[in-house]
């Protein structure tokens, strides 16, 4: 029983006519990795799955209900998205920023309760930034901001996580910690869909893979079928060498001289 | 810095106290100054006739009008800043006040009644909003530079049209010229409609505060957290235009209150709209009451248009914000 599914979905990437219709069925407990070269439409797909962008054709369903017939608030109670780009035009503290994750669960007149604050504080602690609570987001480093964004969605605690480049700006230790967090979310019955550039993170942490090609074609399936050099080399138009570490493949780009 | 629960009552209480003191000051200072004791006597209906007339017919209506107009402009500014995710937005800078002035002026020249004058001001402000936002949006988003340039150019265009309309109108109307270009409270005699509007809008905005907080982080983030972005944004467009129009029909186009007040309050109180919006209503009112008191006493017996004072405060603030945003 899939929690998020698409029927004949074609995302609306500007100036690209065709595309493989996507019939995805995302189950609770799965971690999906969306891979593809720059401009293949990974972010557009994520925004379409969140209902923030109308598809060119086809539909997205949340628990069997078409996304378009749900109110934004109903969607936000089930589905959370971590954007790649964020805007902070106004000063806000780290704690205030994480706390907006509770917005979909509070009525118009309700103020955040101490339970809401506790959730936000736990999320910040889980991302190793509890000590930054009172800092202004604008004073943080890129990696710290990335973790604040993840903490906001962790505070929202959605059944479906859509994450655009979760490891952006993160150092190695925090890359690993964030991927472990995603795996932990899946293990507790949630679903995770993330766009990734790092094949090795996908090979280590994702069980389902969706490949997006620049011309709009797509392939999807279990990791073992798609994370092989025969498939990945044409996807990225890049020769790859592969090794095996701890039972998972490790891909290294091979530099070609012209 | 974070506001837990009902901690907002203290700053609002202090601001209300400041507003009260500013109003008392406005009542006592002027060509004939009145002591607190004299004011108290007037309030109880026991004062001298002169003092009584001065307070009830001149100073109180003017001070309350100033309070209402200041509050309306500050709230309009704060709303537009959330809408545009830009702390430089202000109804005067972006040409809304100019649009409202033209609507009102055209209706007056056509000899229409006061209700139609107000409606025409609202239509002018709304048209100006749509024009600026539509043109500045173009392809892609609103960049601060593009938005400001569009707004400033539209505002100076309105200024030229106002001057043209006044030049073509009978000579006895010319003293009103500064009123529409600069803003002046000398003619404000009916404080209740704008005060009522300020109160009503503050109440309407109360349940929307948290949604506005989320909207301030950008439309995609707001939609992702369950905000119905389109209806909320349209509501703010219309509300900001309405507030500006009401302020302009009361006191002409007074600049920069919508810029200075939200900026100062954000520095002091953070950016929770549930606190900032009512605080803007109180602090904007207080600021304009004080500015107007200064305007009518500084070079007495001559009176300055209050817009001069707010511009003297506002222009440096604007330049500072612009400088810092780069």
TrEMBL record, chain A:
GO MF term set: ATP binding; ATP hydrolysis activity
Chain ranges passing through the membrane: none
Domain ABC transporter, first and last residues per copy: 4-239
SUPFAM superfamilies associated with the record: P-loop containing nucleoside triphosphate hydrolases
Keyword annotations of the record: ATP-binding, Nucleotide-binding, Translocase, Transport
Entry-linked CDD domains: ABC_Iron-Siderophores_B12_Hemin
Function: Part of the ABC transporter complex HmuTUV involved in hemin import. Responsible for energy coupling to the transport system.
Protein name: ABC transporter ATP-binding protein
Lineage: Bacteria, Pseudomonadati, Pseudomonadota, Gammaproteobacteria, Oceanospirillales
From TrEMBL, chain B:
Molecular function per GO: transmembrane transporter activity
Topology with respect to the bilayer: Multi-pass membrane protein
Localization: Cell membrane
Keyword entries, A-Z: Cell membrane, Membrane, Transmembrane, Transmembrane helix, Transport
A cellular component annotation (GO) from this entry: plasma membrane
Any GO BP: siderophore-iron import into cell
Transmembrane segments: 64-84, 91-110, 116-135, 147-171, 191-213, 234-261, 273-291, 303-322
Entries under Pfam families matching the protein: FecCD (PF01032)
Domain of life: Bacteria
Major localization class: membrane
Family: Belongs to the binding-protein-dependent transport system permease family. FecCD subfamily.
PANTHER family: ABC TRANSPORTER PERMEASE PROTEIN MJ0876-RELATED, FERRIC ENTEROBACTIN TRANSPORT SYSTEM PERMEASE PROTEIN
Protein name: Iron ABC transporter permease
